[in-house]
Amino acid sequence: MIQPLHLLGFLGQASPASSSGCTIAPGGFRVDGFCTDPGSLHIPVAYRSIIPVLVLTIGALVMLALSAVLPKRARPGLWPALTALVGAFSLAGAVWQWYDLGTAGAAQPTIGGQIFYDRFSVLFLILISIAVIFGALSADSYLRREGLDGIEAYILMLMSAIGAMLMAQSGSLIMLFLGLEIMSIALYVMAAYHRRRTQSGEAGLKYFILGSFSSALFLYGVALIYGATGSVEFGLIGNFLTGNVIANNGVLLGGMALVIVGLGFKVAAVPFHYWTPDVYQGSPTPFTGYMAAVAKAAGFAGLFRVLTQALGTQQANWRPIIWLMAVLTLGIGSVMAIAQKDLKRMMAYSSISQAGYVLVGLQAASATGTSGALFYLFTYIFVIVGTFAVIGLLQGRGEARSDLGVIRGLGRRQPLLAGVMLVFLLAQAGVPFTSGFLAKFYVIQAAVQRGQYWLAVIAMLAAAIAAFFYLRIALLMYSSDPAEPGPLPVDVPPADAGVLTLGLEPIASLDLETTLVIDPPSRGPVPVPLAVGAVLAVSAAFTIAAGVSSFAIDFAKQATTLF
Amino acid sequence: MNAAYVIVALPLAGAIALLFAGCLPIRGPVGKVRDPWSGWLATAMTLGAFVATVWVWATQVGRSASGRSSDLNIFTWIPVGDLHVNFGLQVDPLSILWCLFVTGVGGLITLYSIGYMKGDPSFNRFFFYLNAFVFSMVVLVLADNYLFSFLGWEGVGFCSYGLVGFWFERNSAAVAAKKAFVTNRVGDFGFMIALFLMFKHFGSFNFSAVLGPLSAGHATLAASTATALTLLLLLGAVAKSAQLPLYMWLPDAMEGPTPVSALIHAATMVTAGVYLIARSAPIIHFSSSGQWTIAWIGAATALFAATIACNQNDIKRVLAYSTVSQIGYMVLGEGSGDYSAGIYHTVMHAFFKALLFLSAGAVIHALHDEQDMKRMGGLRKHLRITFPAFIIGYLALSAIPPFDGFWSKDTVLAAAFHKSPALWAVGVITAGLTAYYMTRQVILVFYGQARWADQSAAHGAAGHSAPPHEAPPTMTVPLVILSVASVLGWLLNAPFGGLDFINRWLAPVFPAAIAPSFAVHTGTKWIIGLVATAVAVAGVLSGIAAWRRQVDRPALEPAVLAHGWYIDEGIAAAVSGPLARTASDLSFEVDAKLVDGSVNGIARLAAESGRQLRRIQTGYVRNYALGIGAGAAVILFYVALRAGS
Amino acid sequence: MNVPSAWYLILAAVLFGIGATGLLVRRNVLVMFMCIELMLNAVNLTFVTFARMLNDVGGQVDVFFVLVVAAAEVVVGLSIIVAMFRRRAAATADDIHGLKG
User: Fold this and answer.
1) Which of the other chains make 3 or more beta carbon contacts under 8 angstroms with chain A?
2) Do the Cβ atoms of C36 and C45 come closer than 8 Å?
3) Domains of chain C
C-alpha cells in the first residue's frame, strides 16, 4: 500500500539506501518500489533557486490581503505601482541568481528534480520579471481609461508570470504542465478582461477552448513519454534514452509529437496559430503585448527544455518537424500580415512570423542556434510590449479603432511617439543597428552553420516580405493626414451596439456597467502617461542598445547552458 | 578631422534639420515653414559636401598612386562572436570619383528644385528626401564594407520610394512608388543572400578583407563561389540600375517630380548598380560566366530599351527609357572588362542626362505640366536658354562628336568589340536608335507647329493662355553649368594627348591582377569611332526625315513598342489575371491611396495569397480546433512513419 | 480475471479520441468543455496504467496534479462562458465568430 507521506518522499531527495525493497536511483532523486523508510521524508528545498517565484507569489498574496483591507477603489495607481515593485524585487532576485550561479556549466536539478537552477532559467526569469514591470506600467492608464481598474488584472498578471517562470525552470514534464496551466488560466481571464467589449469575451473564450484542447494534447504526450521512458524528469528521460538505445519507439515519438503540438500552440507556431490573431485582436491591448512577450518566451523555454534536455537523442526525429513548422510559420505569418487592415491583427501575424525565426534557432539544435533564439526572445519582449503600448495609446476609449488609419500622420502630431514606434517597427523588420537585425542574423547563421541553406534563404525571403508591411506602417506615420475634418469615422461591429440590452436578467444585474463607452481618438495628440512613456523610452533605448553593442548577445550566450 | 567625414555629415545634418524643421514654430511668408530657406539649406548642404569631396580629391591627387586609398573608421559595431564590423569610410579613387558627381550633380539638382517645387505644400518634405537621398548614396559609395554599403543601398531605395510617390494623392504615383519598392526588394534579396554567402566564405564584410587579397593577387576564388556571388550581386545591381529583367520600375518612376527623375536617373540611384559591379570587380574577375552574363545583360538592355524609347510620347518617358538603355552601355563596358570605360560613361551620362532631364523639366514647367510631346512643338523660340541646353544634351546623348557621349560610348564600344564583335554590333545598333529617338524628341518638342497653343485654347483654361515662359534663374543656372560640362566633360578621359585622367585615376582600383588591360589597335579604334559616328548621323538623318513634317506617323509607331513590348501588361496579366477579381473587392479603405491599388508582380502575389489565406481564419472555434487537430495528425503521421525504422 | 494493461491504454486512447472528436463536432460550449474534461481523464487513466506497468508511483502522483489543474480550469472556464453568454440566449460556439480573417 502507499502511504501518503511517502508520496512526499518521492518528491524530495530520498535518503540513500534502505532495506525493504526500496531502491533509490543513483541520481538520488528517484525512488522505485514502496519505501517504508521514514528517512525518505527529507526534502531539501533549495530556496535560492525559486526566489523570483516566491517573490511574485508572496507579492500577489500580500496585495490580495491589502485589497481586502483597503477600500475598494483605494487609490488609483496603487496596484500597478505595487505590481511593478514586486516585479522589480523579482528582477533583483533573478539578477542575484545570475551572479550566484556564476559560470557553472551544466544544469543543476533541485527540489526533487522538478526545478532546474541554471542560467538558461535565469534568463527567462529576468525576461519575465521585466515583462511584469512593463505590463503593469503600460496597463495602468489603459485600464483607467476603460474603467476597468482594480487589483484583479495585476494579480492575474503576477499569476501568469509565476506560471511562465515555472515553465522556464521546470525540471520535469509535470512541472512544465503545471507552469503552463498556471500561466494559461490567468491569461485566459486576461484575454476576456474587458467585460464590456464582446470581442474581448470572444478572445477569452476562444483562447480558453483551444488552449485547453492543446493542453490536453500536451498532457497526453507527457503520459506517453512517461510510459516509454518511465520518468517525467528531463534528466532521467535523457539518461534513459542515452542508456537504452530504443529504435524509434512509437510511444515515445507519439508523445514527443503531442508535446510539440501543445507547446507549439503556446508559441503560436503554424499550424497551431489559429487562435493568435483573434486573441491578440480581442484582448485588451496592453495585455496583448504582455501575452505575446511572456507566453511566447515561456513556451519556447519549454520547447528548448523538452527537445534538447530530455529528447536530445531524438534530434533526427524532431528537427524535421520543427524545420517544417519554422518554414510555415515564417511564410504564413509574413504573407498574412500583408493582407491585414487592423493594426493589432497585423502585429499578431507579425508576431507569428517572428516566432518562426526562433524556431529556426531551435531546429538548428546547436549552441549558436540556442543563444540566437534566446537573444531573439529577450530582445523581442521590449519590441512587442512597446509596440502594443503605442497602439493602446492611440486607440481611443473603448478601443474605438485600431485600423491602420489611426496611425496616419502620427509623425506630424507626435514626432517622439512616432520615432519610438519607428524604432520598434525597424527592429521587427530587422534593420541593422536595432536588436532585430542581430537576432535574425544569429538564428540564420545557426541554420547556415548546419548547412541548411534553403532554410536561410526562406527566412531571408520572409524578412523581405515582412519588411514591406513594417515599412508601410512607418510610411503611414509620416504621410500627411487626409484633410477630413472632425473626429475619425468609427466602425463599431453592430454586435457591440445591439446585443447589450439582451441577456439573462439575474446575472446582468451584477454591479457591472454593461455599456461600452466608445470614444474615438481625437485628431490632436494623445496624452502619453508618464508610466507608459517610461516603458516606451526604456524599450526603445534597449532595442537600439542591443543592436549596437554586444552586452545582450553575451548575456544570451552565457545563458546557453543546454549544450 | 578628415574632410571625408564632412561629405557624409553635411547631407545627414541637412536631412535631420529638415525633418525637425516641420515641428518648429517658424513661419515663412506663405504661412508654413516651407519657404525657400529649406531649399537653400538643402542646396548648401549638398554643395558643401561637394566642396568637401573636391578637397579630399585634391589631397588625394597630391599623393602617390598607392597612397590614395585610406580607411577611416567611424565606429566599430561591437564585435559579437564572429560578426564584427567596422563601420568606416573607404576613401579611394573609385569612391571619391562617385562622390564627386553624386554631390556635384545632386547639388545642382537641389538648386534647380528650389525653383521647380516653389509653392508645393510639401516643400520641406521634398528637400528632406533629397538630402536623405544624397546622404544614402554617399554612404553607399563611401562605405568600407558591404554591410554598411547595403545600408546606404536600402536608404536609397527607401528615399526613392518616398520621392517617386511624392505626390501619392495621384494613384499612378502611389502605384509607381510601390513598383519601384517591390522591384528593388527583389534585388535587395539577392544582395542579402550575397552578403550571407560572403560572410560564410570570407568571414567578413570588409572590402579590405574580402576584396583586398583578391585584387592584390594574393588569393584566388573558386569559380563556383565567384559565379554565385557575382550573379547574386548582379541581381541587386540589375534591380537598382533598372536592367533587364527588372527595368520596369524606372519608366514608371517618372511619376515623381522632374528633379527627382533627374536625380534618380542621372546621378544617384541607378548608378548604384554600376558602382556595385565596379567595386566587386575582384570577385567578378574569377567568374568568366559572370562576366559574360553582365556584358550580355547590358547589351540586351541597351537595345531593348532603345526600341521602346522610339515610340514614347511622354517627354520624360523617352528620357527614362534612354536612361535604361545608357546604363546598359555602362554595364556592357564593365562586363567587357574595361571598368573605367563603364565609369567614364557613367560620369558623362550624369552630366548630359541631368541636363536633359532638367531641360525637360523646364519645358514641362513652361507648359504648365504638359508632358505629351505631341502637344508641344515650336518651343525653340520661347525657351531661349532651355533650347540650346537641350540641344547640347541631345547631341551628347546621340554620341555626335565632339560632345561627351561620343567619347565615352566609343570607349565602351571598343571594349565590347574586344570582348565579342556581337556585343559591339548590338551596341552600334543601339547607338543608331538612340540618335533616332532623340531626334524625334527634339523635333516634336522644339520644332514644327506650336501645338500647345491650340490645346490650351481648346481647353479654354485661363491660366494656360499665356505663352510659355522661361524658368527662373535657380533653374537656368544649373542648366548652363551642366551644358558646359556636357560639352567639355569628355576631356576628363580623352583617348589622346595623355588626357586619360579617369583611366589613370582609377588604375590603382583595378590593378592588372583583376582587370587585365587590353589594348585595342589604334586603327581599329578609328574604325569603331567612324562606324559609330556614321550610324549616329544616320539615326539623326532618318529621324529628321521621318518627323520633320508630320507629328503622327502610325506606321513608325507600332503599338507594341509604345507599350514597351507589352512586358508590363503581360506580367500583370500572368501574375494577377486570375486573382484580379478578388483583389478589386478587397481594397483597403484606409490607405488605398498610398499603398494599395494594383501593383504588378510580387507585391500583388504576396498580398493576394495573404488575402486568400485569410479565408482559413474563419472565426469559428471548431475550425481552429480542427486545424490544430489536423496539424497534430500530420505530425503524428510523420512520426508513425519513422517509428520502428 | 487478469486484464492486460494494454487494454487500459487502448481504452484511454479511445476515450481521448472520443473527447477530441466531440470537441471538434459539438457546438455547445458546455459540451465542448466536457469533452476536454474527458480528454484529461483519459490521460489520467493512461498515467495510472503506465504507473502500474512500470511499478512507479510517480505516474499516480501526476494524476493528482492533473485533477487539480482540471478543477481550476473548470472554474475559470465556466466563468468565462457565463460572462460571455450572459447576454445571449443560445450558448453555441458558432455564434462567436466576430474576430476572423
Assistant:
1) B, C
2) no
3) 27-89 (1.10.287.3510)
